[in-house]
Amino acid sequence: MSLMAFTTVYAQEEEELETDLTTLQFVDADGNVIADGATVNFAPTDPEETPGGFEIKPGIFVENLTDEPVYTAAQVNITAMSSGSLMCCFPANCYNKFELEEFTTDPSEPIQAKAKHSLNTEWYAEAYGSCTASFQLKIYEATLAPGQFVPTKDLIANGPKITVNFIYNDPASINGVSNDGAKAVAFYNANGQQINNLQKGLNFIKYSNGKTVKTVIK
């Protein structure tokens, strides 16, 4: 039996790849669409402490808009990281990066029809700071030739792309304001609407001691 029967083959040619925004899309934990080209910020006030640092994990998912399974991967470009490492396990295989670099994950398993799959990415921060990375979805066509057990995956299109800012701030010292140990209890945007995390632009942070602090995320 030939080696081809056990090997997944990927098309590497990306010249003149079309952009397809009808097959996959990014969504948040509530199902809200994150538009192609958008920049999103995640700044939890109480991140989980792990052996690798403080875990900053945005609730981002990739949704399959079609009635068929879709093989996909992510081209990840880490452009800033103040400390720690960025872990990406999308769709399944994990990559843990400690330096600024660009890499593409393995399209090892498909997203099922009409299903959502977590982006499975987190920044492990060792100290207050930030990490910035872009995520470009890649769309593959899978074919299974006679005698093959693993399908050949040919890269056919680029999907949507977003940029994520992972932010680990000390809530008690944003803009140099001391809150005497008070914890942030709510976030609001410039329109006064409550939001889950700090966003780009003007934000208002309400603390447990009753104070409200204005901050700007750039």
TrEMBL record:
Domain of life, per lineage: Bacteria
Protein name: Lipocalin-like domain-containing protein
